[in-house]
Amino acid sequence: MKRGLDVTLLLFLLHTLGGEASTERRFKALKFGQTENDYVLFQSDMGPFRTGFTVCSWIRKIYTTNNPTWFSYATSEQAFEIQIGDDGSQTFIFGDNSNLRSLYTVSPGTWFHNCMSWDTDTQRRDVYLDGVLIDSKATPAGRTVGQGGSILLGNEQWGGPGAGMDSYDIFGGEMYQLNVFSRKLSDSEIKRMSRNKCSCEEETFGEERIIKWEDIILKTRTGTVTEIDSGCSELYCLGLTFQEIQQRLAELNKTTEVLQQTEQGLNETLTELEEMKQQKEVCTTDLGNKELQLNGTLLELEQAEEEVESLRATLENTEEELNSTRVEIVKFEEKQQSCVEETERISLQLNSTEEEKQEKIEELEMKKEELNNITTTLNQTKVELDQVKDLLEKAANSTVECALNSTVTSYWDLLYSEDFFGGVITAEKIGVLRKSMEKLEFFEGVRVTDGMIRFFKLFHDGDEHCPN
CA separation (Å) from 161 to 81, 157, 223, 276? Predict the structure, then answer.
């Protein structure tokens, strides 16, 4: 146990005596400016303090105001839920103030330890100055610490959470190791914390220390609130007196010689280890090369096996393709034979079709000849119709009377006259005969023949005669 403490102390002393004093921020104090805008405001879960708490801090009074306040906790229901001043004039619990200024006998510029504690079991609020209980006061039964408020360091919050900071309550001093515990600490526990500002006794309370100085030092600050040297370090946290430290230094000097010898032996051992390490690296390199060669050979074997398997699969596929080709050849030969037979059948059909084609040609030639005859007849008929048309035009232009000759006794006999017979009926000739021959207009352009005259005589109702 003693050797372990020597080593720990050695490390701290080497760090400190080597000109590199500890710069951990938890050993810094805060110095507050002297305006109402110089403070630290933050919120914390106050649930752990509902039924009991202890607030402690090292305070150095510098600035003198009406009510210098270093700690304030305000809720929306009570602006003075908890409040502590550095002169005792503002000592609030649940809105009830106690003026303890006459009990605060600390001179300005001096560090002192200040605490307030309370719990529901005792229903009392206690105030401590440098570890001594200076005041105790009963609190209302059933009262617990309000929740959801804000903590302000350096002024009060008479306007509610985060509001109402004024020039009458400026703290303006220095603060170190402010911690809030989740229970009401005993007189002896508070006494131990107050013995030495640098003892780090606060850190022995473990999880009961809810709001910690090392967290507060990191909070956002408003105005002029600066970090300063508290005069404490890790070395003081060991709890040793100056004489004990000197004694430890003497022992450490001897230990340093032993350590130097040990260091020399360690250096020699390290050299041997370095040589062994180099040898190991050489062996490892050779082994690695051999392993690479072996892996390469194994890879080549695997590739060769894969190629053999591939060739085997290719051979099997080729054999299957060859069998398939044989079957296809047989099918092709059968199909070829079928094609030969089909060719012979088509050849016979072509010969038969050629004869039918010749017959069709002859038949078409006959029809062509018939069409030519019909065309000739139609042309002749057209000529005759043109002649009839000319005769009718002549008849229309001449005055035609019934008595063209002695044999004409009716309009039908008129058609036998030289003006009509053999000629073509025209519109003009139809006009001469229109009175009695109703259907004659349908024969316009037709040659007047004996058959046509007889047709009209047969189907006409009356035997029309020329007028007398």
Answer: 10, 6, 18, 69
Measured between alpha carbons, how far is 102 from 94 in angstroms, rounded to an integer?
A: 22
- Residue 311 CB partners (closer than 8 Å, separation 6+): none
CA distance 324 to 318: 10
The list of the chain residues with pLDDT below 70 reads 1-23, 236, 238-246, 248-249, 381, 384-385, 387-414, 431-444, 455-468
- Whether the CB-CB separation of 15 and 235 falls below 8 Å is answered with no
Q: Which of 226, 102, 243, 104 is nearest to 175 (CA)?
A: 226
Q: For the sheet containing 96-97, what is the strand order?
A: 96-97, 91-93, 82-85, 69-74, 150-153, 39-42, 221-222
Model confidence pLDDT, tens digit, residues 151-209? 999 999 999 999 999 999 999 999 999 999 999 999 999 999 999 999 899 999 999 99
Quick check: 58 and 111 in contact, CB under 8 A? yes
Q: What angle do CA 152, 155, 158 make, to 5 degrees?
A: 85
Output the CA torsion 259→262→263→268 (10° steps): 170
b/e map 218-249, b = 16+ CB within 10 Å:
eeebebebeeeebebbbbbbeeeeeeeeeebe
**Class of residue 97 by CB neighbours under 10 A (exposed 0-12, middle 13-18, buried 19+):** middle
Beta bridge partners of 228: 29
Query: 128, 117 in Cβ contact below 8 A?
Result: yes
Tokens for 309?
A: 């398997």
Distances (CA, A) of 421 to 57, 403, 429, 448: 158, 15, 12, 5
CA–centroid distance for 435 within its chain: 105
Q: How much is the pLDDT for 238?
A: 65
pTM of the model: 0.52
Q: Do residues 213 and 26 lie in contact, with contact meaning Cβ atoms separated by under 8 Å?
A: yes
- Give pLDDT, residue 21: 40
